[in-house]
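EI: anyone free to look at a 150-residue chain?
SC: sure, send it
EI:
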Amino acid sequence: MKIKHSLSAQTATSGKSLSSGDVLAFDRAEAEYKELQKELRQLEKQRKVLLDRMEAFEAQQKAFALRAEKLEAAYDGINSAAPTKPTGRAKSLAPAGSASSQLKEMQMSFSMQYLQLQQQMQNENRSYTAISNIMKTKHDTAKNSISNIR
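SC: here you go
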């Protein structure tokens, strides 16, 4: 509609009538413009989804950091509670061995959680980069098409 209005304004000011080829070209350009507007709306929706995912990812990172701090505090608590020198009594060795095995299990669990977080971060980073590249390409294409219409 905007192109048709500007088309009629141009013909009114120039005093010349447009050829049917010019009118057809403007009609095609208008259809392409509408399609580009539709794609831009879709890109905006994708951008919003991506921003929502990034916020969720940041929340997961914060939650993981809190869990890691709690785990470190528990680890420090076990280290401080474990006897540093053996007393020679059989009764005191059994709890120290179980504390040591618990400590090893916690370390393994922490390592696995950290590895999983790294993998999640890599996957999120890959998807973010891919979506970002796609959105940039679509935007550049739309921008070039609009500048070609002008």
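EI: The two ends are 15 Å apart (CA to CA).
SC: 👍
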